[in-house]
Design goal:
Largest sheet: 9 strands, antiparallel
Strand content: 35-45%
Number of strands: 64
Helix content: 10-25%
Structural class: mainly beta
Radius of gyration: 33 Å
Strand order of the largest sheet: 50-51-52-53-64-60-59-56-57
């Protein structure tokens, strides 16, 4: 890459960052690539670990472990096992003669960890300690202009400063080494703008603090709108000091918020005796962030609840080295989940991530590193200022965070106040501080004199800790209802966005999550969407649909609520689709239409009226899709029209060609109808064998009741209307749960179980059968899908016909194949079990039946066994009630009412109050 190309790319990169220096007065030259995909090869030598002891090449930026060097470490590794290698870099570059009269700096956007820089054999400055911060050196006097220069960088993965290690390298995340963010030169005029700090309020008030270097006598600023047109009058001031202010009032600016991320550009011009010395452009937004004591957080005068997530800067192949494309993809995924906020965990992000949050709209909590330890005052003060200089003008940044979970240093608080002219709130994550209660992983009804029982603003900076399939969406509906009902609740931040699965170059490229420490994400390492992704999308949708049953008297009206802060419902678009369903991928008929969006202000409720075609009752399901003002889908809701009993009637085959044959043995009833043979145990009533013309179908040993007594007794065989009936006898003391089989001449088998749960509290209830796992290839089913559900994670799916191939996926583990096959599936109408040899169908005429497919792999839980992903016995179950799942830090019942066990009372065993499970089996191949 030649110098001209590098300079051109550099200017484009600066523009993307929101900080642009005009080409006439400033130049920049990249010495590295700009991210993970365009690294520039430098000479490299590492002292320990893989490929140690020899000079070779490495792309910069990168984490050296991901290039096959050094040693892998997770932050919990013992001190003796931690890699403490040092990386030595060399790179030769030329600098144009045109830069001779400039001030030239070398800029590092991030280097892990202690970094010593030399230019042509001479130190550029003091060793920089701290990984995630932009630092720079003035190297003007060290350069050979018009000639080749030698850059040497020595990077120690483990810092010589104990507090740096405590803040950065002793945390619950992967630890890397190397120059992992870009390196470039910037050339400034001798008289230049050093720093601008902006404060632009929602009422149009504009303030700018400008720090200059050299000599100049005037500073001006002209605002430009998103189209580059001048906005308002130019502001001008004579310079009286190195620190100067520009202030003005602008009329009716378009405000910045996560819903409407309107950006402006401030174009600063520094002059001396009327001659332009330097120009600089800074993107910003007009917005006011206000924290009202014992009330909440207000954006532009409107109370806001944060629907947030914690995010690590992470890519499986490149570690902490990312790219602007990664930032865009991550923010889009968050917005797709209807999130409006993100917390930087647990360090400042790449500058381009904040720029993307500015442009696409996310509220940001930016955090100085500190997992459970913190920087000392000397080093931390320097790093904090470095963080604030590059992120103070991002309108997305609405909070600062002083470390994490005890990694707070109060010495930094005055620096936040001194450096930030906007005076944003400083949060102490997992602490009660300055009016905010942010305790992590609090239980649903947590607190004595705190949280729901306290007086501070409630904003957990981490909650519903994900692990495998637990947390996140599991419990969110309960938490969100509670947050919406509490005036002091300001929302919160889920832990965590992405599974921290690293591609191990030392282990053949496997994806390593360090056991159960890394699989905490809503998405997999490469963005694979887990079930919680869609639950969050529905629960956090800013348009809320109240529950609505579609009956014959349905009038087309839906009660909806506008949960936006700034968007009127009439700014969204609504559409519907009616479908007649058949088997998978077969739709008999569909009709689509648009819906007039009603005028409902933020925070209000109203009616959405759908004008359907007159034959809408002939369809099976209604879908309503809502898109936001940017035409991004909020969610698609589904409403069944046809009920299970109607579908069951269409699947019934009552007639056959010949009379049902019955043979009794000492232990079984053997019934043959239409070529299908059933063997039912005479004592237990359980199905022992099914055989059709093609052979034995290995579906048997049921119905065994789960968390209820399988006490069917005294079976009798009879005939009714051409059917064979095998039924147990009810006895309130010994056989109060009953089983009735009906075999039709067509060969179809009907099962009806009436039963009582064995306890007042039960985890799950239903009936189980055996069907060997090695005999199944997949299923097709009509119901909610395609993802599995838990009792406390019911939202996010759609009603339809789904096909799932068998997989043995364990959530959060390779190969990260979703949706998972095994688990609970909601609102089953029918299921076609696709076996290795032959298939059969099971259907029901009852509503709210859950299908359970096998038992997922048991995963490494924590020592507290919180997740408890419990499943019934047997292989295939048809359930009236299913179990909930916990989180990494909470048992299911502490995630809210939906996580609690089922409650069912009938100690008298009165048959009219029994639970029912009705199933029909069609084994005709």
């Amino acid at each position: 890459m030649n110098l001209k190309t590098k300079i051109a790319l550099s200017l484009l990169f600066f523009e993307a960052m929101g900080l642009h220096v005009s080409a006439q007065k400033t130049a920049s030259q990249y010495l590295s690539g700009t991210g993970k995909d365009d690294g520039v090869l430098w000479d490299f030598y590492v002292t320990e670990g893989l490929k140690a002891g020899k000079w070779t090449k490495i792309p910069v930026p990168s984490n050296w472990e991901q290039q096959g060097f050094g040693k892998y470490n997770y932050g919990f590794n013992k001190e003796a096992d931690k890699g403490k290698e040092v990386g030595h870099y060399k790179y030769r570059f030329n600098v144009s003669d045109a830069w001779k009269d400039k001030q030239v700096r070398i800029v590092f956007e991030g280097s892990m960890t202690d970094t010593e820089v030399k230019i042509n054999g001479k130190l550029a400055g003091a060793i920089h300690q701290g990984s995630y911060y932009v630092f720079k050196y003035d190297i003007t006097k060290l350069l050979k202009f018009g000639e080749e220069n030698l850059l040497e960088v020595h990077v120690a993965k483990h810092s010589a400063n104990k507090s740096v290690n405590a803040a950065e390298r002793e945390g619950d995340f992967w630890i890397f080494g190397g120059i992992f963010r870009p390196v470039y030169l910037e050339a400034l005029p001798q008289h230049h703008i050093e720093r601008v700090s902006l404060d632009a309020k929602a009422d149009g008030t504009f303030r700018a603090k400008i720090v200059t270097a050299g000599e100049a006598d005037e500073i001006t600023v002209q605002l430009l709108d998103a189209k580059g047109k001048k906005f308002g009058k130019q502001l001008k001031a004579k310079l009286s000091d190195k620190n100067n202010w520009l202030e003005g009032q602008f009329s009716a600016p378009q405000l910045w918020s996560a819903e409407f991320p309107n950006l402006y550009t401030a174009q600063f011009t520094l002059s001396k005796n009327g001659k332009v010395q330097h120009q600089l452009e800074q993107k910003f937004g007009f917005r006011t962030i206000e924290v009202k004591e014992r009330d909440g957080v207000y954006v532009n005068g409107v109370k806001v609840r944060f629907k947030g997530v914690n995010r690590h800067a992470f890519v499986p192949e490149s570690g902490r080295t990312t790219s602007k494309e990664v930032s865009i993809a991550d923010v889009k995924l968050m917005k797709e989940m209807n999130m409006n906020a993100v917390r930087m965990a647990h360090y400042p992000p790449d500058n381009h991530f904040l720029a993307v949050c500015d442009s696409l709209g996310l509220y940001v909590m930016n955090e100085i590193a500190g997992w459970h330890g913190h920087y000392d005052k000397e080093v931390g003060t320097k790093l904090l200022r470095e963080m604030m200089v590059v992120s103070e003008n991002n309108p997305s940044v609405v909070f600062w965070a002083n470390g994490n979970e005890g990694g707070h240093n109060p010495d930094f608080d005055p620096i936040f106040a001194e450096e930030d002219i906007q005076k944003r709130a400083v949060i102490y994550p997992w602490a009660v501080h300055d009016g905010f209660e942010t305790t992590h992983y609090r239980e649903y009804n947590y607190g004595i004199g705190t949280y729901d029982h306290g007086h501070n603003i409630i904003m957990p900076t981490e909650f519903l800790h994900g692990m495998y399939d637990g947390g996140h969406g599991a419990g969110l509906e309960d938490y969100w209802k509670a947050m919406l009902a509490n005036p002091l609740a300001a929302g919160g931040f889920l832990w965590d966005f992405r599974d921290q699965g690293i591609v191990r170059t030392d282990k053949g490229g496997i994806i390593d999550t360090d056991g159960n420490r890394g699989p905490d994400g809503i998405i997999g390492p490469h963005g694979e969407k887990e079930g919680s992704f869609f639950t969050i999308k529905e629960v956090w949708s800013p348009i809320f649909f109240e529950k609505r049953e579609i009956t014959k008297g349905f009038d087309g009206k839906f009660h909806i609520e506008n949960r936006y802060s700034f968007t009127n419902v009439n700014q969204c678009t609504f559409s519907y689709e009616l479908k007649k369903l058949d088997d998978y991928d077969e739709v008999k008929e569909t009709k689509r239409g648009t819906i007039v969006a009603p005028n409902i202000q933020p925070g209000d409720k109203g009616i959405l009226k759908v004008d359907f075609p007159t034959d809408w009752k002939d369809f099976d399901v209604l879908y309503i899709t809502v898109k936001d003002v940017h035409q991004q889908e909020l969610f698609t809701w589904s409403f069944p029209i046809t009920l299970p009993n109607q579908v069951a009637n269409s699947l019934l085959k009552p007639n056959g060609t010949e009379e049902i044959a019955v043979q009794e043995t000492a232990n079984a009833y053997e019934v043959k109808a239409n070529g299908i043979r059933y063997q039912i145990n005479k004592t237990s009533g359980l199905l022992e064998q099914v055989q059709n013309a093609k052979g034995i179908i290995p579906f048997k040993n049921g119905p065994v009741l789960q968390e209820a007594a399988t006490n069917y007794k005294n079976f009798k065989l009879s005939r009714e209307d051409g059917k064979v009936i095998i039924a147990s006898t009810f006895d309130k003391k010994d056989s109060y749960n009953t089983l009735r089989w009906e075999i039709s001449p067509s060969g179809q088998l009907k099962m009806h179980v009436q039963y009582f749960p064995e306890s007042y509290f039960t985890r799950f209830v239903g009936v189980n059968f055996d069907f060997p796992e090695d005999q199944i290839s997949g299923v097709e089913y009509r119901g909610m899908g395609p993802y599995r559900v838990w009792k406390n994670r019911m939202k996010g799916n759609q009603f339809g016909v789904w096909k799932k191939k068998y997989n043995n996926t364990a959530t959060g583990e390779a190969p990260f194949e979703y949706p998972e096959f095994k688990g609970y599936h909601a609102n089953m109408y029918w299921t076609k079990f696709i076996g290795k040899d032959q298939s059969f169908r099971v259907f029901t005429d009852r509503e709210d039946v859950f299908l359970r497919l096998y038992t997922p792999k048991e995963q490494q839980d924590t020592e507290w066994k919180n997740m408890e992903p419990t499943f019934p016995k047997g292989d295939i179950s048809f359930m009236n009630g299913i179990s909930a799942i916990g989180t990494k830090t909470q048992k299911p019942e502490t995630t809210g009412p939906m996580g609690m066990k089922h409650v069912y009372y009938d100690f008298e065993k009165e048959p009219t109050r029994a639970l029912h499970m009705v199933l029909y089996f069609d084994f005709e191949n």
